[in-house]
Amino acid sequence: MTRWLVTGATGMLGRDVVTALRQAGEAEVTALGRDALDITDATRVLDAVTGHELVINTAAWTDVDGAETDEAAAFAVNSTGVHHLATACARHRARLLHISTDYVFSGTNAVPWAEGAVPAPVNAYGRTKLAGERALHAVLPDHGYTVRTAWLYGAHGPNFVETVLRLAADREVLEVVRDQTGQPTWSHALATRLVALGRAAAAGTARPGVYHGTATGRTTWYALAREAFTLAGLSPGRIEPVDSDRFPRRAPRPSWSVLGHQGWGRAGMAPLAPWRAMLSHAFAAGVFAFE
User: What is the distance between the alpha carbons of residues 273 and 76, in angstroms, rounded to a whole number?
Assistant: First the structure.
């Protein structure tokens, strides 16, 4: 029986990964949140990986704006911590599935970013995540898997869809940016795919490398908010489009976060579902239940 380790297991994606593993019938699962495992501690990481064959790393520094003023702290988690995990997996001959981000790209493109496109992050968060990817594949070239994702929403953590629905109770009109394009992705759908990828990796049918774990299609934050309102039975006319300079942020955001999904074919898998269908399924599953 395969023994799995999930790091960052108390976060939005981590909790969904643990659920997906149990739904898939995997009984040997160790789930460690940050309180139980600080991945910046090499000794504790080595001990935690011992006895496991597959590791899914969802631990990360995700404060994008905070990384601009404390890049060293973000680097410690997003790069050094990944290096520790990769080193431990190499020692124990375990496979490592690591979650990365669309923010490794510049955002200046007109077609989906391929898995092999040249990264060029525009903020500190992206730089630290890219460093983590490179550390993983340098240390674990034959057993390392990077899964880049973006625009995550789900039941177990703050996210854009939850925020706009919550604000709807207090505001008649919401301003939402229209000049950023990406692929809204349900964390549960990604978690299920990570389990499938891990199994394929163990079976030798999924080659190591980079995969893009986002919904297919593309949309803007503005159009996503309108779709969420429609599914919630609210009037989408209450959403007004604005440009991103209306909400200045410390860290610049990529304007084009559309990822290509050719990599899944190498593993004999189809890309994830279209974003609208995925969002509809999330609503049907009761992810966004507001009284």
Answer: 34
Angle at CA of residue 29, ends 213 and 101, nearest 5°: 20
Burial of 277 (0-12, 13-18, 19+ CB in 10 A): middle
Q: What is the DSSP string of 170-194?
A: T-S-EEEE-S-EE--EEHHHHHHHH
What SS3 string covers 57-82?
ECCCCCCHHHHHHCHHHHHHHHHHHH
What are the CA-CA distances from residue 63 to residues 51, 159, 267 (Å)?
A: 32, 13, 32
Question: Which amino acid appears at position 45 of this protein?
Answer: V
Total residues belonging to the chain: 291
> What pLDDT digit, counting tens, does each position of 188-242 carry?
999 999 999 999 999 999 999 999 999 999 999 999 999 999 999 999 999 999 9
SS3 154: coil
Domains of the chain by start residue, with CATH: 4-159+184-216+257-273 (3.40.50.720)
**Residue 94 token pair:** 């375990």
Q: Which residues are catalytic?
A: 125
Interhelix angle 187-203/275-284, nearest 10 degrees: 110
